[in-house]
Amino acid sequence: MNTSDNKTSNENNASQSKILHLLKTRGELTAGQVAEILKMTSMGARQHLENMEHQGLLEHQFIAEGRGRPKKKWYLTRKAQSQFPNTHSALLVNLLGHIQQELGENALDNLITIREKEMRDSYQQQLAQFETVPEKLSKLAEIRTNEGYMAEVVEEDGQLFLVENNCPICSAATQCQQFCRSELSIFKQVLGCKIERTEYILEGARRCAYRVEA
């Protein structure tokens, strides 16, 4: 492969990575929306989307929105989802199963309690320099992103939301939902305010979202 081919391949890989991240954080989009957001031509966007479909990374469906023809919208497949951080999910699920089977449910509860305390102490230490809820929330989103949750702070209709576009422990949380309850408790404690989960991956949503009362 010559230098020109290498450059083209790298550019295609970079574009596909941007599309994967965009669909992960925004949900299903049309080719036109992808092109507009990523500043590429409509033809270029369609070519990338179709190539990624052939690779098994994307699928599409036609969705009717008001009058006119249904719109072709693209979304990530399970194969594409697996490319995002998952904290060695298979290994973690196996370990949880062994703990439950060999040591009992109480041992698993104790393990989650220890994890909750360690996370809470770590978060509180990192948030200590911030005074307001919005400041703390912004830092918490940064921390969670570094942990693989692809978190961001979103404001909608004057309300703040902590949005996590990825769950690196999803497989483990599916088997043991105490992880999710534990994390919600941690958020409430470190932010010092009322928080309500409004979207939940384990209930079929594409992301987890939390309404924060600042």
Brief account:
This protein is an alpha+beta fold and 214 residues long. It is built from nine helices and six strands; from the N terminus they run αααββααααββααββ. It folds into two domains: 3-81, Orthogonal Bundle (Arc Repressor Mutant, subunit A); 89-212, Muramoyl-pentapeptide Carboxypeptidase, domain 2, CATH 3.30.1380.
Question: How would you describe the overall organization of this protein?
Answer:
This protein is of the alpha+beta class. The protein folds into two domains: 3-81, Orthogonal Bundle (Arc Repressor Mutant, subunit A), CATH 1.10.10.10; 89-212, Muramoyl-pentapeptide Carboxypeptidase, domain 2. It is built from nine helices and six strands. The strands form two sheets. A four-stranded antiparallel sheet has the order 3-4-6-5, with helices on one face. Strands 1-2 form a two-stranded antiparallel ribbon. A hairpin with an 8-residue loop joins β5 (195-199) and β6 (208-212). It starts with a helix and ends with a strand. The mean pLDDT is 86. InterPro entries: ArsR-like_HTH, Carb_Metab_HTH_regulators, WH-like_DNA-bd_sf, WH_DNA-bd_sf. This is Transcriptional regulator.
The helix tally amounts to 9
Taking the sheet with the most strands, its summary is:
4 strands, antiparallel
Strand order of the largest sheet: 3-4-6-5
Quaternary organization = single chain
Mean pLDDT value: 86
The share of residues in helices is: 55-70%
List the helices and strands and how they pair.
Layout: H1 3-26, H2 31-38, H3 42-54, E1 58-63, E2 71-76, H4 78-81, H5 89-103, H6 105-127, H7 133-146, E3 151-156, E4 159-164, H8 170-175, H9 178-191, E5 195-199, E6 208-212
Antiparallel strand pairs: 1-2, 3-4, 4-6, 5-6
Helix pairs in contact: 2-3, 5-6, 6-9
